[in-house]
Design goal:
Belongs to the thymidine/pyrimidine-nucleoside phosphorylase family. Its cofactor is K(+). One of its GO terms (molecular function) is thymidine phosphorylase activity. By secondary structure, the chain is an alpha+beta fold. 45% of the residues lie in helices and 16% in strands. A 5-stranded mixed sheet has the order 1-4-5-13-14, sandwiched between helices. It has a 4-stranded antiparallel sheet with strand order 6-9-11-7. Strands 10-8-12 form a 3-stranded antiparallel sheet. Helix 5 crosses helix 14 and helix 9 packs across helix 10. The structure holds uracil and calcium ion. The site of calcium ion has 9 residues, from strand 6 and helix 11.
């Protein structure tokens, strides 16, 4: 098979066969196809797109380029959740124990965050002693016994995706929907899930800035999932402003505890119930999303979701006492109030800028090896749509290093828009995307 012929074919808008896609992915991964040919192909895809069969073939070729996690020894239907990123997204911490309490096994491989705030592992490590270095056997055993476990990703999953993503990053071919969809789905499928619930964010703080493209990406991923026998649904959710009130690792751990007690912020609670309900339906523990949602609400109200969180934290060596007494989580030395310069209604809280503010305080990594400060971050006091008086607190900065505080305060205030007109909170959940189609909510 001549690689140049395949580039030619895609350049002219024709469909490649599964064998042709295999030739490209395997050739690139093994080094027989050079970067320049693979970039030309990626650029052809950028302009011509891919059919749904081609996307599924690309996804599965990337899955088979590395290890595939086998979760067969875990009983039940394993449902994974993936979010396309955002600021202060505390959902994974809440959903693990919540969904497990409803009887759906959660076997999560996770990574550390490179970005504004930490990843799931960083957030969980806010519980002193918590470790994600489990053997596969211990991981499987814990899911079978407790219903939930989080393991640090050690396996070499989807190396072809890693390589192709690196190439796309420097050839202006990242923002191609078929390539993004195949990239994300390959990682989820290699991680062993039977079913996948996606949270595709839209807005200034998200990868997909506008709703139309977010829906298109969600549709592409749902279609890949059903093509390869993984039941997949997606919601489209708002990421104009941060999710919940807390941004920062221990602060989000506390926010997760509050949410599992039924005392969390309304938006975080709503998104967790929505995503969790779809996980429970796919996991076979309820017939409809409404029924699943009631089940989850029950698990919060009767304390079993919170109890599951404690069991899970303790099983992995963490200090479960912090669940009853969150002051045992890492605490910052300095709490600095940011006050409103004028009265008005909060019209915007730019998620990405606020994420950067949290990172400047030490909540995230600017480089891969940077050390995270679990204690620091930001707790919002107001969200979009809220009324504030002049001098009223907009947010509290939790800092250890005071040298950045003045700069962070200034940057935070620039990320806030106050208006003299009333403004309403953004619609949090915009649409549901399933195999059957898109439902606007
Ligand atoms: N995230 C991914 O994992 N892959 C992409 O291609 C883009 C975002
Ligand atoms: Ca949050």
């Amino acid at each position: 098979m001549q690689t140049v012929e395949l580039i030619h074919k895609k350049r002219d808008g024709k469909e490649l066969t599964t064998e042709e896609i295999r030739h490209l992915v395997q050739g690139y991964a093994s080094g027989t196809i050079p970067d320049y040919q693979m970039s030309a192909w990626a650029m052809a895809v950028f302009f011509q797109g891919m059919t749904s069969r081609e996307r599924a073939a690309l996804t599965m070729e990337m899955v088979h380029s590395g290890e595939v996690v086998n979760l067969d020894s875990i009983q039940g239907i394993k449902v994974d959740k993936h979010s396309t990123g955002g600021v202060g997204d505390t959902t994974t911490l809440v959903l693990g124990p919540l969904v497990a309490a409803a009887g759906v096994p959660v076997a999560k491989l996770s990574g550390r965050g490179l970005g504004h705030t930490g990843g799931t592992i960083d957030k969980l490590e806010s519980f002193e002693g918590f470790s994600t270095s489990l053997t596969t056997d211990a991981f499987v055993k814990q899911v079978n016994e407790l219903g939930v476990a989080v393991m640090g990703q050690t396996a070499d999953l989807t190396p072809a995706d890693k390589q192709l993503y690196g190439l796309r990053d420097v050839t202006a071919t990242v923002d191609s929907i078929p390539l993004i969809a195949s990239s994300i789905m390959s990682k989820k499928i290699a991680a062993g899930a039977n079913g996948i619930v996606l949270d595709v964010k839209t807005g200034k703080g998200a990868f997909m800035k506008d709703e139309e493209h977010a829906v298109e990406l969600a549709q592409a991923m749902v279609e890949i999932g059903s093509h390869v026998g993984r039941k997949t649904v997606a919601i489209i959710s708002d990421m104009e402003q941060p999710l919940g009130l807390a941004i920062g690792n221990a602060l989000e751990a506390k926010e997760a505890i509050d949410t599992l007690k039924g005392e969390g912020p309304a938006d975080l609670t709503e998104i967790c119930l929505t995503l969790g309900a779809h996980m429970v339906v796919i996991g076979g523990k309820a017939k409809t999303a409404e029924e699943a949602r009631h089940l989850l609400e029950e698990k919060i109200a009767d304390g079993s979701a919170l109890a599951k969180f404690r069991e899970f934290i303790e099983a992995q060596g963490g200090n479960g006492g912090a669940i009853d007494d969150p002051s045992q989580l890492a605490q910052a030395h300095h709490l600095i109030e940011v006050k409103a310069p004028a009265a008005g209604t909060v019209a915007a809280l730019e998620a990405e800028e606020i994420g950067i503010c949290a990172m400047m305080l030490g909540a995230g990594r600017e480089t891969k090896d940077a050390v995270i400060d679990h204690a620091v971050g930001i707790v919002l006091a107001k969200k979009v749509g809220d009324r504030v008086e002049e001098g009223e607190v907009l947010a509290v900065l939790h800092a250890n290093d005071q040298s950045k505080v003045a700069e962070v305060k200034e940057r935070f205030l620039k990320a806030v828009t106050l208006s003299d007109k009333p403004s309403s909170p953004p619609r949090l959940i915009r649409a549901l995307v399933t195999e059957q189609g898109v439902t606007t909510l």
